[in-house]
Amino acid sequence: MPTIRILPLLITVVLLSGITTSLKGQSSMQGVITDLTTGQPLEGVNILLESLDVEDLTRGAASDRNGYYRITNIQTGEYRLTMSYVGYTTIVDTLEFSEGRQFNINKSMEPDDAQLDELIIALEGGVTRREVGHQRLTASDLRRVPTPAGSGDLASYLQALPGVVSVGDRGGQLFIRGGTPSENMVLIDGALIYQPFHIVGFFSPFPEDLVSDVDFYAGGFGPKYNDRISSVMDVRMRSGNRFEYGGSASISPFLAEVMVEGPVIEGTSSIITAVRSSMIESTSETFIGERQPLRFESQYLKYNHVDDNVRCSAFGLHTYDRGSIDFESDERLEWRNLIVAGNCTVLPSESRTLIDFGMGVSNLSNLNRGTQFSEFNSRVTRFFIDLDLTNYIRSTRVEYGFYTVSKWLNFDMSELFQVDQSDDYTMFSLGAYLQTSIPVGNRITFQPGVAVTTVTQYDLSIEPRIQAAWKPFGRDTEEFSAVWGIYRQSLIGVSDIRDANSVFTAWMRAPIGGVQLEATHVLAGWHQQIFPGVDISIEGFYKDLKNMPVTLWSPIARFNTELALADGEVYGWDVHFELNRGRYYGFLGYGYSWTIYETAQDHFGIWFGEPLQRYHPPHDRRHQGNVMGSIDLGSYTFGARWQIGSGLPYTQPIGFDEIHFFDQQMPNVRRNYGTPRVILDRPYEGRMPVYHRLDLSAERTFDLGNAELILQAGAINLYSRTNLFYYDVFTQRRVDQLPFSPFMSLKMRI
User: How many domains does the chain contain in total?
Assistant: First the structure.
């Protein structure tokens, strides 16, 4: 509790210090830079002030993710202002600064198609242009990965990265650096989406036509993000055009989609809406040769309003997925996301503080039906309010904020052996965070921070985090960076213990001993630009895991919600090589990872001879490699991706027995053999075969004046590699991933 009292005091000191600084005679300048057509904030805009009175006197800054910048300590006089950004028309102006004044200079930059056509090197986004544990993705990155639809997709792109394990082309499960899907945080314009990826693994609600940018943290994320211990995908969706109506429509054997955008009040507000629906269930027999009983859809609507110092938006998203992971079984999966949220960003004209306020509600319903059990279902609803503020004290950037979250959870499951488990409860959390960016000279930057959260039924959580960056030669082209931090999570997702392909997740609070999941992250990395357009980066990581809930191990294969605690370790390294020069793009990546859990022997239903058991969980992929390339030849674009991964662990069966049920009548054990069940060996001692696959795409664009027609053709799994997806321990039967799957797509963009 003393920490909760200290935080308001710290924030008060920050605000008072900011006010004091602004009264010391020199002028300052701040503002928000946005895209003229959409009102979207622009990050990375270079703002330069050059004195017209004093030679070699310059001041500069770069805009942040909110488009916000601030320049302090400006001497009195006349200056030339230059704002430049790749793909936009440069803004040049002349300003007169008087003593002790603060100037709010907000600008909207106009996209420049000529600059985009002549662009040789993309400085934003990319795989190697990254901080340790973090990289920025843009829509142009997403379209580089061959995807069997008219648009690139975030789900396909992420699977091309080392350290991201996807167990197959169905299910929509991503395991990032040893973490499970329930330990990933996926945000859409600040709102959490619980199960973001579609049942057909190439797709998500985040196609390139809707995405503005993505901050992807494979670990080491800052204190603004809380209640997850593995990774963060912070997706910001773009706003609609404020001046003109436009849209697109596309169709392929996998997906059909329509997108429309345009002004509500010209120049002030806009909407963008999109509808996507899968086609694979009805087309798979023709294109693939076997029916794929998989279906998904999504509907999205966003409203955006831009004023001089205020930018507000609101959106709604609905997704629905239904299908069977094993096509020959009677099991049916179904899940639905519903999100409604909004936020406002304000920069008051007389204030030094950028204010970002958001609130909304997220809901997930998750269902599993089958013949061996009646039904599993799980639901979770989350309501949140966030307040984020950004300030500067001289050259020190200060970010701080407050958040409150209410969660309603319930699950109801009928176990395989007639044992019902159900529960429902409410969780409430309240917290605050503080992070600063402190430059030390021109080569070193420290970013210390802390998150403080109180959650019902748990002790106060204090999570310190720090990041440091060092440019030993004073250039952006060589940088060493490192991160250390503590992360905790109060909400857990329980899945089937037998393999990594189980999609159904029961959401519940961490139920044992009043402790939360905990992870300590340590990361270090080096980025090197060999020459313009050719970069390499290498990054090592270590995670120490505590209080990990794992289902009690049983030699009998069954879904189980009885939990025990385990500790774990994850370590490894990634290396990335990227070529990005105009029409040519190439990427080569390799990742090594090692994940192990340790828990007590009494958590197992059979004695294995040691007091502690150590085992690799089913998502422990040791080696993973990716090769990706594309070439742009005017109206033609060609792309390819090849990936390879070592086999995932699975539990081998060692025999069978039979079970008799006595709930309705006494069975005749002499004449009836009962229901067979599988007896399992030590957990995850086996390894599946090596996985590899080649995907190709070719695209032709036709200019129709006010519209474009884009024709794409390609193939998934070009050489029809028989990749194992799932091994059914009950029937000793293997389930394979997609064979050779050709596709064509037709897209019209207006």
Answer: 2
- Mind listing the pLDDT tens digit for each residue in 665-687? 676 666 666 666 677 777 788 88
Backbone torsion region of residue 125, taken as left when φ is above 0, otherwise alpha when ψ lies between -120 and 50, otherwise beta = left
Tokens of 376: 């599993």
Task: Supply the Cα-derived Rg of the chain in whole angstroms.
Answer: 27
Structural tokens at position 593: 């990872």
Find where tokens 């039979």 sit: 658
CA separation (Å) from 89 to 45, 82, 107, 402, 678?
11, 11, 12, 37, 67
Instruction: Kindly report the CATH number assigned to the domain that includes residue 334.
Output: 2.40.170.20
Q: Are strands 231-237 and 184-188 parallel, antiparallel or unpaired?
A: parallel
**What is the domain range of residue 487?**
130-749
Are 163 and 177 spatial neighbours (Cβ–Cβ below 8 Å)? yes
| 69-85 pLDDT per residue, tens | 998 888 888 999 999 98
Full-model pTM: 0.89
Which tokens in the block code for residue 52? Answer: 């017209």
50 and 146 housed in the same domain: no
Identify whether residues 398 and 454 lie together within a single domain: yes
Is residue 336 packed enough to be buried (19+ CB in 10 Å), middle (13-18) or exposed (0-12)?
A: middle
- Is the residue at 60 inside a domain? yes
> Are 209 and 352 in the same domain?
yes
Note whether residue 204 is domain-resident: yes
Q: Which of 107, 58, 104, 68 is nearest to 397 (CA)?
A: 68
Report yes or no on 123 lying in a domain: no
